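Tutorial handout. Part one gives the primary structure; part two gives the three-dimensional structure as tokens.
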Amino acid sequence: MRVEIANPGFGPPYRRQDGDKHLHVAEGWRAWWSTEKAESHDGDHHRPEYYEPEEGQGWQTTYATHRAGVFQQVDLPREAQALNATIQARYYAEDDRGRRGDLALRLGVDPAGGTDGSSEAIVWGEWRGQTDGSGWEGKAWQPLYAELERVPGQRVTLFVESRCRWPVRNNHAFVKGAELRIVPLDDGEPTPDEPSDLARFLREIRDLVARILARLEGQ
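Part two.
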């Protein structure tokens, strides 16, 4: 069952988050970032600039690394025992000399419905990018995946994270096409989408009785 997500394609309008002209974020989503010390060089991660590219949502740092992304809290229409999330992503992370930023992206789900991209509660999918050995150069859109096997409540948060190791001139990340699906609880009860055999039988009996009564009244 597909869950409704606000603006899954990251289309317009784009809003200035908290009135900041450098945080131009698609409606329904919010930017997040970390300014912690970078692991791979002598410096801190920087807050990216968020902008509207030709398609989807984009963010980038110039001659700086980042650990950042976007998130959205999602209310589930009913209880679920599992969730499957996907999103399309691409990137551009190099400079004019061919030096790479070693940028990678991943998708995650916070079962607690929080807003902290650094939370240990987030269940992350695999990293995809310049460091995963797949040969994905970032020009073509590729899917990112995340799965949640247990859902304690009816609000979760989708997180996207990009992280780069080296402060090259261009460290750009792009996303579009978010999707979230739930697996219903297997509680033996009929659901609105899939009525049980007993429910279908009782409905047929009820319809039959109604037709007989209508026929008798017409005599």
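Part three, for discussion. The chain has two domains: 2-187, 188-219. Residues 188-219 form one domain.
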